[in-house]
Structures are given as C-alpha cells and as structure tokens.
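Next comes the chain:
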Amino acid sequence: MAFLKEHGHALVERGYEIVPIMKGKKAPMLKGWQDIRATHDDVDKWLGNGHADGGVGVLCRNTVAVDIDCLDAPLNHKLLRWLDENVGKSAIRIGQKPKCILPFRVEGGFSKIRSCEYEDEVGSKHAVEVLADGQQFVAFGIHPATNEPYKWVRGKSIADISQCDLPIISRDQAEAFVTYFEELAQQKDGWELARKGMAPAEVDPDDLSMFRPRLDISTEDVRELLMSVDPDCHHDEWVRVGMALHHHFDGGDDGWHIWDEWSADGSKYRDGECERRYHTFDSKGRAPITLASVKAMEKEAVSHVIKEEQLPKMLKEWAFVHVEGSARVIREDLNKHNNIVLYKLEDLKKEHMNCRVLSGDEKPKLVNLVDMWLESPDRRTYAAGLTFAPDMQILEKYNLWRGWSVEAEEGDVEPWLDFVTNVIADGNAAYATYIIAWAAQMVQNPMTKVGVGLVLRGRKGTGKTKFGELLGGLVKAHHKIVSRAEHVTGNFNRHLEDTLLLQADEAYWAGAKASEGALKDLLTNPSITIERKGVDAYTAPNYTRILFTSNEEFVVPASLDERRFAVFDVGNSRKQDSQYFAALDNWYNAGGAEALLHYLRTFDQANINLRLVPQTEALTDQKLEALDNVTEWLYNCLQNGEIRENRVGGNVVQFGSETPKAEIYDIYASSLRGNKFEVPMKSAPFWKKLKNYADLFTDGAYKCEAGHRYRTMKINTTEASRFIFEATNNLSNIEWATLDMGAAESDPFNPANWED
C-alpha cells in the first residue's frame, strides 16, 4: 500500500509533523528526522524519491503518544478507561493486539516518560511510555511483527482528526497515568520488576536553566569524571552523557572523542555510533543536559551503595549456587512470601553494574558491589546445587522450601467441613471424604506425589475457587494461581520449581491435544525440567499438585481408563452467597487456618486409595469430550439410535439389523469428511478398533448382488450395544437419549422383558 501517498498530505493539512518510515519497519528513512517540519512540498519530494510505499510517522513534538506496550488485555482495558476519564477520548492505533498507541496534543513540551518494565511468568514484558519530543510513532504502515497494516479503531484515524482537536494531556496527567500502570502491575501475581522507569525532564522555555553555564573543568577532569560512570549503563543515561559532552564542548570534536573513548570500555560499544549520534544533538528550545547531570550520576553510583548499606543486605538476601554445573545466584525476596529469584551471574552483574563502593584507604577507588560480594568470606555458597524439599532441612543444598504459612493448632474446622461436604461435594459424603483425603495427603506427605489432579467444575460464584484459596493459604509461598493453560504446560515454567499447589483457574484444555502429554507428565513425573528466559534449563524435583477450577464443560483431557483426574461438580446451594463466604473467610482468618492445618495433618487416610478416583458423572463428561473420532462416532450413533451419515440425510443403518460391511465404514467416513480437524481412520484400523466391542458388530454372511460378492455385519440392538459400549469403555454414568424402540419387546437387555 502507498501509505505516504494516501495519508501524507492529509496529515500535513491537519497540522501533524510527519516523516517517511521504512517499509515494514518502525524507523524513519531520513537522517536528522527529529528536526523535520514537513510541508506539502516535502511530501511531494518524498513521493518522487520512491518513498511512497513506506510508512508515515508522526513526530512527538506537539503530538505526544501514549504507548501501551502491554500484552495483558484486561489491564489494557483499565488503562484505556483511565485515559478516557482523566484526559479524554482519543483515536487508538493497533499494531500487535492488545498493544496500542493513543495520540494527544501537548502545550509546552516535555521529554518522554517511561514506566518500570515488568516480566510475567512466561517471560512476556509489560510497560507503558509517553513518547514525546525527539521521538515518533508510526501512524500508517506495516507492522514488522504481524506483517499486517496498522489499524485505527474507534471509527477515525488521525488522518480524519485535526491535530488541534486532539485531547490535551499535561505532564502531570502523563506522570499520573504511568504511576497508575505501575500500581496495577505491582498487583499482578507472578509479575516481577525487570527494569526501572524514567521520569520526564522539566522543560520551561522561560526558565533560566536554559542558560546553564558550563562547568569550569579541564578536558582531563572530564575524562576522570567519566571513569566513575559505567559505560554499560542504561541507553538513556548513555545518551545523556553524550548530550552533556556536546553542551560542554559546544558541539566540538573533543566531545565525541571523549564519549567514544569512554563508551569503548563497555560491552554495548559499536564503532562509529558515538560520532553519528553526537552530531544530531541540538539543545535549541530545550533545557540543555550539562556535565552537572554526569556528576549526579557519579554521586548516585557511589552514595547509593553507601547510604543503603547494600553489601550487608546482599550477604543476607543472596546466595551462590551451582545448578547443573553452572554458576547461579539466588535472590530471596523476603517481601513476597519468601519467594526467590534465580539469576545468571552475568545478569546479576548487569543489574548492579552502577552499584559501586569506595574501597581502599590511601587512594580509594570505586569497586563494583557484586565483585565485593563475590569476594566476601561471608557469602553463602551451595556447591551441591538447589532442591525443593518440603518439610525437610537440607544443609548441603539450597532448599527452596519456605515452610507452612501458619502453625498447626487444634481447633474448630466445622465451617470448612460443611463447605467441602455440602458445597464442593454437593452433599455426597463419599466424594467429600476423597477430597479431604486429597488435601490431607499434600499436607502429610508433601514429597510423595499421588499423581491425581483434583478438578472442580461449577458455575461462577459457587465456591470452587475458594477451596483452592483456603488450602493454598496454608502454604502461601508455594501456592500459585494461573489462568492460562500455557502457565501449566508452557516453555517458561520457573513458577513451578517450588510449587506445591498449582491452582489452574479456568485454564481448561478444550481440544488442546498438544499439551496433554505435558499436563499428565506434570501430574505424575517425580522431576521437572525448569526453563527460565535467558537461563539454561535444569532438572528439579516435582512435587506439584494441580487443582483445576473451571465453569467449562471440558476441563481436562481424561482418557477412557483415566486414573489421573478426580472430577467433581460443585453444588449451587451457595452460589453468589456473599454472606456465607464472608463468614467462611472470617473463620479462616480468626484461627481457622491453624485449625485446618492441624486437622489435615491428623486426618486418617490409611484406608483411602487416592489412585482409585471416583467414577463421577463429571468425570464421565470429561471422558466423552476426549474420545477419538471412531469412539465418538459410535457414541453419537448410539445416542441417535441409528447409524447414519448426518442428522438430516444420507444413508441410514438400524441397530439390530444386518448390512454390508463396507456400508458401515462408508457412513463413518462420510460423517467426518469436510471437518478439517478430524481425519477418518482407514478401513482396516477402523474395524480393528471396533473389534474391542465384542458382540456389538459380528461377522455376517457373504452375499452376492449384481455379480458382486460382499461381506455383511450383524449389528446388535440399541440397548445391548449401549450396554457393551459402557462396559468396554468403563463408563457407568452415561445419560442415554430416550428412543422409540420398535423392537423393544424382543430386546433381552430391556428390563421389561425380564422374568421374575
């Protein structure tokens, strides 16, 4: 598409400052694009120079852009609602959903504002940014990741809106928006801080700071000053150093030479980049960056460590450990239920590269804090590696176990027993006993896997999630709640290395055949391969129990001989009963948790075999949802009371009849044709599969018709066939459709024909 040709003149006409963008990229085509103030003549020139097939970018000089770089759709909806209510409704540009950009008008410029960056359990990163002076965003073009055009939603694009009609956003509003995002991000379970944010620089054209004097220091003093600043600092800080040198040397070559010499000591150095960037700096209309800011960076690098006493803190919270032959560092997050974070040593150094302390008496020098920690004789070291051993004390290895959340104490557990029996088990005492035993086994023998996942199926507000919250509250550090299937079976699974109870809330497997093996392996395998983003995979013990809670019909992939899922339908007696659940919470918080832990520790489960899962109707539903296509086809035929191609037409064969063998297969194959997700089994394996159903299909006579000899099959009656199907597949709770049985009086499986 010719984006520039289609939208370039319209955007200029409506007051936007634009630049041509590389085709399929986000970067501008032209050097010095920050200073371009495009006219209609410029647009025509660009079109004549072959830029018509590229994209169109909008400079964020007078038109700032709020960039929501977040993949969490519910959180994004909250952010959009905040902007609508506090700033005003603007157009929305979509590139890679649910990420989006919203343009706003600004009076008096300010520099960009970037939030802290947060990383979730699967390695995705989330942040927001207010793109401002010196930046641009692609208004029209092809997104490099999706290879699809950017889209404007809410009815209008900025090509239809005058720049002066955009809602105005102030610097205070932009900062408040960023703060709001960070507050929401900090409340997300499993999200961790990956990078700190950046506040905007104050800009006031009438401020005397526009005329900040240069520091009276020599060139050598400048070089010495830079020795205290790490060249591998954040990119924004690196640029500020270059701008400060540009200001101090009035754009002279000495500035970029010193910047280049200093940058060359860092790992991110690229030859020629300093010179190229240096000559693009211009302080016109903006408060200049001076060497005073570099001195502040040096002061922060030194004083921060000294004031916060970082070394003693690190000795307390960090430990050195060998994992699968590689050096790793453990950070204990004592503020979040004693969770830990595992780092590569080089990542630790990068995170703390600016954290330095003064070392030495006669001639003190700056020393990296991590190096001091590594050399400290008080550093904790676990050469044997790490492990997860619940309720155990391990000396030679680092134990990820953080203990139970409460101390067991005998007390009243009747509220919980009533909840389990009458709500979770829907009044079935036998089912309630199994559920209690499942919970007790986790408490009594946390290092012995039972290999059975507990599945609670019910409507919203019935209490199924509450069961996991109460049980997980006994072991908060090792209770994880996830809502997506990939959090259970995905590649990046660091959250599982120290999980005792995994609560998969609405993480159902409706047809997710690819993840079945991983799910069942997690339930039964005594070890697990842990993969962290950027860290080599390693093997860890697997004591994870999985609790599934869902209001979906199909929750787990249960096979016909299933022994790995215990499935129960939660009752509706307390649906949306907020008073009941509030009383349950009050009991739990007032000593109930301690009493529950004691009860589960002393519960007698000697005569309960958890591997013998109750054959509930809910489990039967899961089995029926997971049938292979031959078994599902036969089941549907039995429900319909006849073998036919489809519900409205085609060939029909009755149960209790004799018919050509080939015709039965043809009906089966025809019923699956056209479904791209189901491929009919070939004839030979089809009949091999049906041999499992003895006496349902039996060999008939050979017949000859029109010179063609063919084999027939005898098909048992509907009632008899249903009985055989249930017995063969170990199903006892199938709700069969009621049919008008023409030959019911002769059916030996019809109770009406039984003699006393």
The chain has five domains: 3-194, 208-305, 309-383, 414-618, 627-753. The chain is about 35% helix and 20% strand.
